[in-house]
Amino acid sequence: MTGRVVNSLTHRGPHRSQLRKNVVAGSFTALWNIILSLISYPVYLHFFGYEFYGLWLLLSTVVGFAQLGGLGFGQALAKLVSEAIGDDVPGEIREYFSTAVVTVSSSAAVVIIILLLCRAPIVATMRLPPHLVPVLRHLFPVAALLSVYAFVVDTQNQMLAGLGRLDLCTFDQALGQTMGTAISIVAVALGAGIEAMLFGSAVTLICVHGLSLWQVRRIWAATPTASGKLFSLNGLSRRAFKRLLLQGGGMLAGTLLAVLLVPFNRLMLSRFGNLRAVAVLDIAFSSTQRLRSVVDLGIRALMPEVSRLSACGILRRGVDLSALVKKATRFTALVVLPTAVLLELLAEPILRLWLRGGFTPTVVPAFRICLLGATMSALGLPGYYVLFGLGRISQIIGAYALQSAVNVTALCCLVLVGLRLDSTLLSFTMAGGVVFANVFLLRQGRQAICALRARAVRDDVCSVSAAL
User: Fold this and answer.
1) Whether pTM exceeds 0.85
2) Quick one: which of 71, 256, 329, 459 is 20 to 30 A from 437 by CA?
3) Cα(first)–Cα(last) distance of the chain, in Å?
């Protein structure tokens, strides 16, 4: 088994092809999502206008808040299942999966009750124009239900990543997103309104859930050392819960900061700006994040690979992880930097061509600033996934905390001096936080690799001394 793991890192074994598939599939999925955005944004702006589209974005912040109910178990499940595969203990895989599903489902029930009880104060916080308040109140319960279903689906989908099939994980997401977007566009064109967006989101989640459930069961049934069903109440384990909570709780702390930041920015812009600015900022931020996602969905394959290698003890025996990280960093730079420079130069004509009648001049500076932040964020991804794969959650939390602190502090200072917020000012505060956080991640990732190499040298010295 050790030989197979070494082969995956030295590019001579069967794991090489699967790792390559995971990277390529993730990147192509991200490119497909960009195409969907290029098609959908002009349609939504044409039929909704900036004000009603801004209302939809505020409604979607409910989804962002509710993601905290996932307890960070999705990514924790992927990491721990990868380690169990490295240790060749399928019984632990069943324990992790069963415990995660039951815990997240229970958390979902609690979150939906809290959201429904807090509907009135949440809507009041947004300070919407009077004619939009009844619309938001009417749609809020459906958005709340979809939000808690989303993190249940994510937990199921992350199981595929843990099993080493990140290609299937991203394929399911792409297919679900395609179906949901297509249905939303057709329904909006037929005059269905914002309800069409909710229906499209529901279709996406159901599709991803069904596909990932079928694929996980098929992979489990084909595992020679596995026996019985993957999910079983008998598989519930206190030990598994503690490990999931330890890993997931650390990620939850970081996710808490990251997830709350986007809704916080939208709410501040709605309160001290206007709904139009909320829509402009989302176009700029979301479109530039698509560029980052091309790298993210590919580089994400590093995390389960590093976790599996670490569980086998291979990393501690001196295999040079830095070679793998250098290739990931080179891939990131080659994809992101030329594309970012080209988009910075051609931002205005591209946005005019894309948005057409929905184009507004304020989206250009916001796009350019967000693009700088997205580029820096992409360059920090190899360090992020190496730290996560090695279980160094505290450094990841530190990066999230730094990003949030810079963003929130800058935003509060702008409000205190009496400036009226707009999409350009918000873009500056967001990009500043991203730059500081990812410089920190790059440094921490480099230090983690140096620590592994130093440990390997010490182990070799001790082995030689013992032999003598």
Assistant:
1) no
2) 71
3) 29
